[in-house]
Amino acid sequence: MGKATVNTMFRAFSDSTRLRILHLLLNGELCVCDIVSVLRVPQPTASRHLAYLRKAGLIAKRKQGLWAYYKLTAATSPFHQSLIKCLRECFRDVPELASDAKRASRQDICCQTSGGTSQGTSGGKRR
């Protein structure tokens, strides 16, 4: 793993919005509209941070029709594994992350992926 990759990953973890997104994705794939709703940020803000996380190799994007879904990538190095482990364990007591997790657990799923069709259930826009 090169120095540039390590620096990019550290920068990805240094922003609170990106850290919140990564923490949400620990529980599995999410649609952009779900991320926007849980984090309570504008869609362009979420998309900008998601693009940065993709560039850093920390998340992957999947398109299904008009919907974009994101998930954590599999760790590609011991360093990457350590970052994900820290994400799971080191940030348990961060109040903002706990609030996000609580909102996510109570949230209606915006996008339905079963059956090959997509329907919004929370009034979110398709992305």
Q: How many strands?
A: 3
Strand arrangement across the biggest beta sheet: 1-3-2
CATH class membership? Mainly Alpha
So what's the oligomer here?
Answer: single chain
Structure annotation, total helices: 6
Q: Quick one: CATH superfamily?
A: Winged helix-like DNA-binding domain superfamily/Winged helix DNA-binding domain
What share of the residues lie within helices?
Answer: 40-55%
What best-fitting shape do the alpha-carbon axes yield? globular
Mean pLDDT, as a whole number? 84
Which fold does the CATH topology refer to? Arc Repressor Mutant, subunit A
The value of Rg in angstroms is 14 Å
CATH architecture: Orthogonal Bundle
Distance between the termini: 33 Å
Tell me the strand percentage band: 5-15%
Structural class: mainly alpha
- What kind of sheet is the major sheet? 3 strands, antiparallel
The topology string of helices and strands comes to HHEHHEEHH
Low-confidence sequence ranges: 113-127
Q: How many domains make up the coordinates?
A: 1
Structure, explained:
The protein has helices at 3-14, 16-25, 32-39, 43-55, 78-89, 95-106, and strands at 30-31, 59-64, 67-72. It has one domain (3-113): Winged helix-like DNA-binding domain superfamily/Winged helix DNA-binding domain (Arc Repressor Mutant, subunit A, Orthogonal Bundle), CATH 1.10.10.10. It starts with a helix and ends in a 21-residue tail after the last helix. Mean pLDDT is 84; it is low at 113-127. A three-stranded antiparallel β-sheet has the order 1-3-2. With 127 residues, the chain is mainly α. Helix 2 packs across helix 4 (43-55). A hairpin with a 2-residue loop joins strand 2 (59-64) and strand 3 (67-72). The chain is globular and about 40 Å long.
